[in-house]
Design goal:
The structure is a homodimer of 213-residue chains. With 213 residues, chain A is mainly α. Chain A folds into two domains: 49 residues, Homeodomain-like (Arc Repressor Mutant, subunit A, Orthogonal Bundle); 140 residues, Tetracycline Repressor, domain 2, CATH 1.10.357.10. Helices cover 70% and strands 0% of the residues of chain A. Chain A is built from nine helices and no strands. In chain A, helix 1 packs across helix 4, helix 5 crosses helix 9 and helix 8 packs antiparallel against helix 9. The first copy, chain A, starts with 12 loop residues before the first helix and ends in an 11-residue tail after the last helix. The first copy, chain A, binds a DNA duplex (30 and 30 nucleotides) through helix 3.
Chain lengths: 213, 213
DNA sequence: GCGGCAATTATTCAAGCGTATAATAACGAT
DNA sequence: ATCGTTATTATACGCTTGAATAATTGCCGC
């Protein structure tokens, strides 16, 4: 009997995992965690459902991998933007702006982020992943701040630096959230300008000290 | 044949709707949107599944009603705390603090909030509900701010007031988020204090002007 | 107390879910 | 070329899902 079995190609493990994770994120972003079924994900990745359990012990583990990838992607995008700045001040500014500018402010990203957040209470492994990445974000911000204060020859205790980092992080997160949820309410640069002047205020800088070239 | 049909009591429409919505929120908070199945919700509400379609055209409509109830509950909690203040300054302070204090900072609330946010991209009716409540929150904050500036005899344009409201709202949301997600990282009053001093900075007040009695 | 209305239960249905297992085809080693 | 390995497909299974329908029972007006 000549069965019509579809042809395929054997991919490397890394490649296949990557594809599956990407497909998972796509599905969640498009139709929520409800829509991220094994079959949907497999279809989008161009494979059949059974393959997922060849690379992951189950759907849950794949979701976790996807969460990890998404979170590190977000933080790294902001850090990548920052390191291109020449001074500590420029790096701080670029970091802030990057977090309230596409592609970080993106409906897809927000949808993914929220979907995972809502699973933190249900599955503790998601909480661990979140914590890990929140701390990384906080530390990146704290490092930028410390360097900035040093460059400005302004003495700030490490305790105060941490408090600043928490506030700034909250502000950035909040603006990111609102800017993404109500993108139509804000003009192109409005969000970034608001973020910068808010940061200036939070750090007790001169108006324009951060935003001006 | 004497079938064993369970006894029940005919409730008023308002009562039953309320029960169903509460049960829906409980289910989502506890086990995510995935766990909020018609049967789970019905069980928790003490009825059988079929009844849901007697009060709502479908599961989706019930979810929307639940979202609406949850959001108005959050905003109203903060507003209720605010109006007890005697001066405009006190009202503003109470509003800020209420938003970073239980019961607003509560894992259950966060879980619910995130679950719904993640459905905004999928179902436009959820987006409308969100928008509605975000604007209400913003307006409440703007009103408090305007009154506060007037009380302080400080002249602030309504444009600037709106910008302040957006920044404050973002900050509060962000702190709420982080404080709830990583509750163990913050001491009891730390979050509220951080919020108040951050607001002071954002509004260019004297340190302690808001937080001090 | 007793009809009749409708709120509620009980049951059924098709579709879709995650997972398990068996068959198969791709590809590197030989 | 052929073989052996194993990545991949195909199929099946048992459950759960949201919804539709039929049967019943609580309750209000009389």
């Amino acid at each position: 009997m000549t069965e019509n079995r579809r042809t395929y190609h054997r991919a490397s493990e890394a490649e296949r995992r990557e594809d599956l994770i990407t497909a998972t994120l796509d599905c969640i972003a498009e139709s929520g965690i409800q829509g991220a079924t094994v079959r949907q994900i497999a279809t989008r990745a161009g494979v059949t459902g059974g393959l997922i359990r060849h690379y992951f012990t189950g759907k849950d583990q794949m979701l976790q991998a996807a969460y990890r990838k998404m979170m590190t992607g977000m933080t790294e995008a902001a850090i990548a933007a920052a390191i291109e700045g020449e001074t500590a001040k420029a790096r701080l500014r670029r970091f802030i702006v990057a977090n309230v500018t596409p592609p970080v402010t993106d409906p897809r990203t927000l949808s993914l982020w929220a979907a995972f957040i809502s699973h933190i209470q249900i599955d503790p492994s998601f909480a661990a992943i979140h914590r890990e990445n929140y701390l990384a974000f906080l530390e990146a911000l704290e490092t930028l701040l410390t360097a900035f204060f040093k460059e400005e020859q302004r003495l700030v205790s490490s305790d105060q630096c941490r408090r600043y980092a928490i506030s700034l992080s909250a502000l950035v997160d909040g603006l990111w959230l609102e800017g993404t949820l109500a993108a139509d309410m804000f003009a192109d640069r409005e969000l970034a300008e608001n973020a910068l002047s808010s940061v200036e205020a939070l750090l007790h800088l001169q108006p324009g000290e951060l935003s001006d070239e």
